[in-house]
């Protein structure tokens, strides 16, 4: 070809033709969603009256409904009727846990999807290997549920109160357990501090980072938040730890290490010396070091207000087996002897933690929305609690767009999969929620779901209700079976 411009022109035409969906490159299972207001969660822009062509689990094209409708069968067109489409929601902190709740947990997987949650991050449990297997089965379309990212089992010290931890006493055991997690092909590493000494905790963070893992977890009293952040901690679970940054964290940690201050007394010192300005300054340090925070407000809120809220008639209980809810009792028992002052203290502490969210956001810290839903977390109901968490974020003063980001793209960025998940654009995986009202005006709109697209499959409200009905049936059956055991 003599003229290079002609060549470039033809190339552009060829590329354009290849990108544009035609009947020949759309499969028989493709679907089209029309009249959708598409929410761009990165910018907060809404593209009105768009059609989304979805094929083989992916968004193929976003465009004009009348043009694209020629590519799919009549029965495969779904009218969103001017409703709002957002990416499927991510719950960045759940635990699929307890060896005696395997069937119970499996029954809840479709429920997540019915609640618009198409991805969960499982933050480790005693069912580690099973959750890993479920993750793979869901990815292979052998099991129906949300996409799972999981830590498998978490690292802890010897004789931890949590069941099923990988307990380590030294660096050799740390290496063995990291080898085990490598073998499991976990998605990240979780570490908690029940009995794990601070120095081995810090080494664990560094060694897991060396192996390429994101590392998240709690903050021990004998380690400062800054030490963890500097060592490459990817995210801090629970915003309660943020309060430490309002005090002389390093100084208090030194006192704990030298034995001058008992761990059991450290909490009081932090509470009595909290300063909001100091906290805000250090939140900027967290932001600079790229440490995200998963606030998990709802669990603390449920416990703090247990005396005011009667959960006995919660509608959600119809989905949970008696055995599942029996696990709630331990936290209730643990709080039974609390004085009125202690009860008020819990509420004040909850409010102070919630108040940190706007400061964290303003400082540039990435917020990950996670519920901490788990059998052991009292009244933190799987799936529903994420929606409650989002409302608590709004009550704490975050803007709906920021909240939506915390429950979509921030999760995808955490796992570095934002180029295929959690945005609405061509080539993205088709996990979507269609809402009856605009979530950018009020985040509680996420609770009013018209339809869900999970892995490219359109699930109407009717279908979602069927899924929920099935969960109820399984609950009834399991309760009945266990009565006669
Ligand atoms: Zn947790």
Q: Could you give me the name of the CATH homologous superfamily of the largest domain?
A: Metal-dependent hydrolases
CATH topology of the largest domain: TIM Barrel
Bound molecules: zinc ion
Report the average pLDDT across residues: 95
Low-confidence stretches: none
Describe the largest sheet: 7 strands, mixed
**What is the name of the CATH class of the largest domain?**
Alpha Beta
Overall number of domains: 2
Give me the side-by-side strand order of the main sheet.
Answer: 3-2-1-4-14-15-16
Helix vs. strand class: alpha/beta
Report Rg: 24 Å
What do these coordinates show?
- It is a single chain.
- The protein is α/β, with parallel strands linked by helices.
- The protein has two domains: about 100 residues, Urease, subunit C, domain 1 (Roll), CATH 2.30.40.10; about 325 residues, TIM Barrel, CATH 3.20.20.140.
- It contains 18 helices and 16 strands.
- The radius of gyration is 24 Å and the shape is globular.
- Zinc ion binds next to loops.
């Amino acid at each position: 070809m003599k003229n290079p411009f002609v060549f470039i022109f033809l190339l552009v035409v060829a590329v354009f033709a290849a990108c544009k969906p035609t009947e020949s490159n759309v499969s028989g299972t493709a679907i089209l969603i029309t009249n959708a207001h598409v929410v761009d969660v990165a910018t907060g822009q809404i593209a009105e009256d768009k059609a989304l062509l979805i094929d083989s689990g992916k968004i193929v094209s976003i465009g004009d409904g009348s043009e694209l409708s020629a590519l799919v069968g009549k029965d495969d067109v779904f009218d969103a009727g001017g409703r709002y489409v957002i990416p499927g929601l991510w719950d960045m902190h759940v635990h699929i846990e307890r060896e005696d709740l395997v069937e119970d947990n499996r029954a809840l997987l479709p429920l997540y999807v019915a609640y618009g949650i198409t991805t969960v991050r499982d933050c480790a449990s005693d069912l580690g290997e099973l959750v890993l297997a479920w993750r793979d089965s869901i990815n292979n379309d052998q099991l129906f549920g949300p996409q799972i990212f999981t830590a498998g089992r978490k690292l802890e010290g010897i004789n931890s109160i949590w069941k099923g931890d990988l307990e380590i006493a030294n660096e050799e055991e740390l290496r063995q357990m990291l080898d085990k997690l490598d073998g499991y092909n976990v998605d990240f590493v979780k570490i908690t501090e029940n009995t794990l000494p601070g120095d081995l905790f810090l080494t664990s963070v560094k060694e897991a980072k060396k192996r390429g893992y994101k590392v998240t977890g709690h903050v021990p009293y004998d380690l400062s938040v800054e030490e963890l952040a500097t060592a490459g901690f990817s995210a801090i679970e629970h915003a309660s730890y943020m309060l430490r940054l309002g005090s002389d964290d390093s100084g208090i940690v030194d006192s704990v290490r030298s034995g001058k201050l008992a761990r059991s007394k450290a909490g009081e010192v932090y509470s009595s010396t909290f300063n909001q300005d100091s906290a805000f300054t250090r939140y900027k340090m967290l932001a600079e070091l790229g440490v995200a925070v998963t606030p998990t407000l709802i669990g603390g809120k449920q416990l703090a207000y247990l005396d005011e809220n009667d959960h006995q008639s919660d509608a959600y209980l119809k989905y949970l087996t008696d055995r599942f809810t029996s696990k709630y009792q331990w936290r209730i028992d643990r709080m039974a002897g609390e004085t009125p002052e202690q009860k008020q203290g819990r509420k004040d502490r909850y409010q102070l933690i919630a108040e940190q969210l706007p400061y964290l956001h303003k400082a540039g810290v990435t917020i990950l929305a996670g519920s901490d839903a788990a059998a052991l977390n009292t009244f933190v109901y799987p799936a529903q609690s994420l929606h409650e968490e989002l409302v608590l974020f709004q009550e704490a003063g975050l803007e709906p767009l920021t909240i939506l980001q915390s429950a979509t793209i921030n999760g995808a960025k955490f796992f570095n999969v934002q180029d295929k998940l959690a945005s609405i654009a061509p080539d993205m995986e088709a996990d979507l929620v269609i809402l009856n009202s605009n979530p950018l005006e009020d985040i509680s709109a996420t609770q009013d779901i018209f339809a869900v697209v999970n892995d490219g499959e359109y699930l109407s409200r009717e279908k979602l209700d069927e899924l929920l009905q099935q969960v109820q049936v399984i609950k009834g059956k399991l309760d009945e079976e266990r009565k006669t055991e």
